[in-house]
Amino acid sequence: MKELITLIRPYQWIKSLVVLFPIFFGGALGHFDALSEGFITVLSFSFASSSIYCLNDIMDVNDDRRHPKKCSRPLASGAISISQGYFLIIAMLALSILSLSFLPERRNETGAIIGFYWLLNVAYCLALKQHAIIDVCIVAFGFVLRILAGGMATDIKLSKWIVLMTFLLMLFLSFAKRRDDVLRMNETGEAPRKNTYRYNLTFINQAITITASVTLVCYIMYTMSPETIANFHTENLYLTSIFVLLGLLRYIQLAVVDKKSGDPTKVLLHDRFIQLIVLGFGLTFLIIIYFL
C-alpha cells in the first residue's frame, strides 16, 4: 500500500491549490459556495494529475532505474508492476470524474478543461517532454489550465494578469527544476532525460533571470492597473510586490547557490524562508483587500 501511495504522489496535490487562485485574487474567500466548488475542483485535478504521474513513471521506468534518486521509485525499483501502474491510472482517472459529479453547476465545462489537461499531459509523457522549451511551456500551461478550471467551476471571471502571472511563475519554476537536471548531467556525464542535452547552465541561468524579471514586472503592473484598483477599491496592493521579489530571490538562491531546485513542491514544503514569504504575502494581500 505504501508503494501505491508513493506512486500517485499525494504530496504533489499541493500544486492543485492553484485552482483556488481565482477565489483568492477575486476576493471571494468569504463565499462558501465558491470555496466548496473550488475544493471539489482541486480534488478532481489532484486525481487527474496522479494518473499522469503514474503514466510518466511507466514511460520513464528505464531512465529512472539509472537515476541516483529516481531509482527508488516504486516502478523503477520493482516494488510495483507495470500492470499495477496502469490500473492506478484508470483508478485515479475514475476518481477524478467521480469528484466532478459533486459540482452543482458547470461540471461539463470544468470537466472539459481537466480532460484537456489530461490529454495534453498524456502527449507530454509520450513525446512532447523530449523537446526542450516545449516541455517547460507545457508544464507551465498545465497550471494555467488549473486556474481556468477554478474560474469556470466558481463562475469567477479571471483577470488576464492572473493568467499571465501564473504561466510566467510556473515557467520560472520549471526552468529552475531543469537546472537541477543539467547539474546532474554535468556531474555524471549522463542526461537524466533526453532533452537535457538541449539545455546548459548558461541558457538555464539566463532563462531563470528573464522569467523571474518578467514575472515581477507583470505582478507590479497587475497591482497598479486601473482594473485591479477598481476591483479591490485600493491602490495599496503594490506593497505586496516586496514579497514577490523576496520569493523570487530566495528561489534563485536555492537554485544557484544551494542547488536545491529539483522539486518545487518539496522546496515549498520544507523551506521555512519560502513559507514565511508566502504567508506574509497572503496575509498582507488579505488585510489590504478586506480590512483597509
TrEMBL record:
GO cellular component: plasma membrane
GO biological process, one term: glycolipid biosynthetic process
Parts of the chain that traverse the membrane: 12-32, 75-98, 110-127, 132-152, 158-176, 203-224, 236-252, 273-291
Main location: membrane
Enzyme Commission identifier(s): 2.4.2.45
UniProt topology in membrane: Multi-pass membrane protein
UniProt keyword annotations, A-Z: Cell membrane, Glycosyltransferase, Membrane, Transferase, Transmembrane, Transmembrane helix
Presence of the UniProt keyword Membrane in the record: yes
Keyword set includes Zinc: no
Protein name: Decaprenyl-phosphate phosphoribosyltransferase
